[in-house]
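Hi! If you just cloned this repository, the fastest way to understand the data is to look at a raw example. We've pasted two of them here, unedited. The first protein comes first, obviously.
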Amino acid sequence: MKEKNTNNLKLKIIAVLFATGLWMISININDPYQSKDYPVSVQLLNMNNLTSAGKYVEVVNDSDEISVRVRGNRSVMDSFSASNIIATADLNDLDQNNRVPIKLSTIKTSGSKIESIRSNDTYLEVKVENIKRIQKSLEVMTKNVPEDGYMLGKVTTEQNALKISGPQSAVDMIDKAVVNFDLAGATDDVSMILPIELYDKEDNKIQDNRLTMSLKEVQCVATVLATKEVPVIATVKGIPAKGYAYTSEMVCEPTNVVVAAKANALRELKEITLKEVIDLGKATQTVETVVDIREYLPESVILADAAFDGKVKVTANVAETFTEEVEIPVEQIQIVNVPDGIKVEIKEKNDNLTLKVGGFVSEKEKFAEEDIKLKIDILGYMNKENIIELPVGTYTLDVTLELPEGVWTESSLRAEVKISKK
């Protein structure tokens, strides 16, 4: 009886093993195991812990993109995808070699049919740097020029500085923050919203998404001014020493300057006057001075040439003079503009007129009494006195003098004339 029970147990065990084997065969035939590889992105955990400590974490060598091999039954694998895999790297586990272990798991509900999830990429590699923050003034760089006859005045920006942060190695590359303004053909003010660009010391444009800027773009306004070339003139004050006089020869160097302003401000501007910039008081020779023309420009008018420092050299010529009296025969007087129907004669034709003249010594040798022209203008007298018809009679009239260049007089001459009918 005992031997019979033992035989039954053996048969039962064999039956179980046989059934299990048949089940395994059936499973492998109907729902076999499969292995598939999936591309997966690793999620970083607890990044804020390092960021709040002033650290910047950057994944290197694309180590956050890994290949994961999953093995499981076909019934599971047929509906399995990369989105069912969770790959994480906890930065709290960062080691001294800047590596973080990668942990793999799945959110697939039929987890019991997943035999394994593994990857040859077991560590995430990172670079840890200090976060650096700087502030840069905005520079405006203009390219191209306004239309001929116009120039750029000044450029203003709504904000004049921006804050930049990022890994120290990237921030240290920044030399300047620039706005590029194109003014090609402009004839009036230009207002635009322009992007802010970063450049290194070699003027290479920096494009680094690790950098954070407080501003990405800024409103810019460029003032465009009209230009105009105008002469420079100067005036004097004071009286030279006795025996000397101002020759009225004034030289300004440069003689012309180009100025800029809004078109309506330039429309009426004909010249720049340097008023009383030279004092000739008691001068006995040529006087020179240098003035800054910018102090004499009208409001809102500027010099167009930025390279010109505004310095103008002004020279006033002072020369020695002479005075003498000359006798001029009355018969040298010319009668001009005589109306029809009347006759004009000078009385006392044999008399002489005494005239005190002065001039520059340098011109004295050229001076001759016959060069002095004397005239009596009859119509001029009638118009001045509002006379329509000149009655017969004797009149004392002004004599107009025409003196040679460099000669003058402070005297006035009058002569008697007789008016009669023809």
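Ok, and the second one:
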Amino acid sequence: MDKKTKEFVLKYGVHPDVADSGRIIGNFIDEMEEGLKGREKSLAMLPSYLSADFVPVKDKKYVVADAGGSNFRCGVAWLSDKGAEIKVTGEAMMPGITGEVTAKEFYGTLAGHMKEALSQARDIGFCFSYPVEMEKNADGRLIQFTKEIKCKEAEGRMVGKSLLEAAGGERKVTILNDTVATLLGGKGVNRDPRHEGCLGFIYGTGVNICYEEERERIVKAGGGEGRMIVNIEAGNFSGVPAGIIDERIERNTVNPGKYRFEKMTSGRYLGSIAAETLICAGKEGLFTVRITEDKFPLITTRDLSEFAADPESVGTIASLFRKDKDLETAYDIAESIISRAAKLCACIIAAAAHRYIESEKKSFGIVAEGSTFYKLHGYRQKFEKYLSELTEKQGASYDIISGKGLNLAGALFAAMYNENK
């Protein structure tokens, strides 16, 4: 990266060097502690009332569903001698993506997709990928939609109750966050004794972390014995400085002022960050070709990934430039954006893992889920490089745990836990 390009990405806040690791980690840990006590901070620290310590129930079928950032999946799942088995019966785009819907329309659409699964099993494990304030009865109240879902009427209502009203029948429903589902699913299929602690990490359309906390430290949930999974709601973290590009992106979202970290790092927004940064670079004279905002194409995170993998390929970003020098500058900007996202995510993972490390659990697992984590070119390598540097300073180590269908497997194990607690 030449001097002029580096000065530009630093000025606009999209270079990894703008992230002060020590300060970000410290801010995150402080907010975790305050959130556990019930004090209002950007980290909600939501109790799940679920534990990874559950009694397996063999061969009983459950309805499982996963309402993700963009897509909805459902099916029937059960635990056999082979492990968690899942039969997917329905897949569709999430309602509320293309325009505002009512609460009745939202849950009615989901129940319609679940019709076949509901005919084959009774009780439901429902992975719901949005901020929910859980209650001890395993239902939860939707705080707000994120990831650009538009259904204002559903906010403040009970998720499980609303789904059951649409689905009909006498059933028990267990609500859990997608990050909690990832952790449960990962631990359920990979019980490695080396992992003294485990984190759930979602890095896809959105970003979030959960971890296992001693109940006695969860003051807001009344304390108690044993451990509980806590949903950090890390995407809302505000203890990280936003740059010029971030402020521009923020103004065009449906919930300005909220979920700053997610908007700076997640797959839902990285394409927009790339587009805005390239437009600003054009205005600053970094390219020989004229870049005009009104004719600039839509850039997705997939476009960003493809360009980072091969800047000379025929793609949305590469097609904007004719000269090698322009391609090189654009490539350096793309690499900088991905590196910053990787460093920021490594910081908050290191902060969440601090709870295990300080209690002498020096080896921990990260159950990672999300297409952006695995498909964004160069991201995972950069993320692991930054995280290794941070954890090695504390004498700790980690492993990445992956698997297929972890959210639906987690929904299965949550329904089992709720049945037997």
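That's it. A detail worth noticing about the second one: The chain is about 40% helix and 20% strand.
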